[in-house]
Amino acid sequence: MEFLNQLRALLNSLIVDPELAQLSFVALLGLAVFALLAAIMLLFLGLADPLRRRLKHLEAQPAGATAGNAGSATAGDGVGQGLRGLVDPMGKRLMPTEEEARSKAYGRLRQAGIRTPGALNTFFGAKLGLALLLPSVAMVATIPFRVPLNIGLLVAAGAGVVGFVAPSFWLDRRIKRRTLALRRGLPDALDLLVVCCEAGLGLGAAIQRVARDLAISQPELAEELTLFGMQTRAGMDTRTALRDLEERTGVDDIRGLVTSLLQSMRFGTSIATTLRIYASELRDKRTQEAEEKAAKVSTKMLFPLVFCVLPSFFVVSIGPPLLGAFRAMSGH
């Protein structure tokens, strides 16, 4: 504390304006705290160890990578690898220790279409990194506005909370967009599957053909179907591959499709007939959803009508007669 008081007195002597001196002192203190936290983090995580960085880089490379492939990396890939090398060790410290929590977080990443190695470490590392970086940026940004110290600390705390929550919010939005894209592409895929199965193709061959046909119009669904085909060609059982398709997409319509296909395989019924019946049920379900949304329109329009349209209507229609009545009552 004595050192801080001496530093503050030195700034007061060098800078005539007391408020500017106080803001400079707060800025220097914030930068010092950030530098201290960064130094402790680097020492704790061992990022300064070149041998550990080299081992992690070798572990992240695929087994069949060649020197030519390594030399063809772009500058953007190098920057991305550098950021991941900084963020991944941070994520290991923040990652939950419970296996159930890790499985749930990894399942959410799979539903968002993120299946790269180390994605879980990168996600938690981004949460921790933004939670530390944004408060420092917020403290520096408040200096030109001469914000009081308590307000600045409150803004920094809010920025830390935003930085910690922002990756989860981004992941939720990405899951919603991908789920919507999968649901929109499923009817076309079902129609093509029915045609392929009735033409004599098996389920695996039909799914691979549909994945090729939907690669341009529905890339998300085509990617999932292509991955299913790769799993079956690699030797995975069809039932296991269907269960994995259900888990990594998290879409209710695909879950119902997988359940219908598994029941058809279990009881020996026709795959084409099962697909046709489920496609008909899915159309009825979508029709009911559209009718439900249409029925909710009148209720949703009630609040804008009452709070936005009716007040202006009453002002226009009743305003002039009221003004005339007030003038008549006032005797003018």
UniProtKB/TrEMBL annotation:
<keyword id="KW-0812">Transmembrane</keyword>
<keyword id="KW-1003">Cell membrane</keyword>
<dbReference type="Pfam" id="PF00482">
    <property type="entry name" value="T2SSF"/>
</dbReference>
<keyword id="KW-0472">Membrane</keyword>
<dbReference type="InterPro" id="IPR018076">
    <property type="entry name" value="T2SS_GspF_dom"/>
</dbReference>
<feature type="transmembrane region" description="Helical">
    <location>
        <begin position="302"/>
        <end position="323"/>
    </location>
</feature>
<feature type="transmembrane region" description="Helical">
    <location>
        <begin position="151"/>
        <end position="171"/>
    </location>
</feature>
<protein>
    <submittedName>
        <fullName>Type II secretion system F family protein</fullName>
    </submittedName>
</protein>
<feature type="transmembrane region" description="Helical">
    <location>
        <begin position="124"/>
        <end position="145"/>
    </location>
</feature>
<feature type="domain" description="Type II secretion system protein GspF">
    <location>
        <begin position="190"/>
        <end position="316"/>
    </location>
</feature>
<feature type="transmembrane region" description="Helical">
    <location>
        <begin position="20"/>
        <end position="48"/>
    </location>
</feature>
<keyword id="KW-1133">Transmembrane helix</keyword>
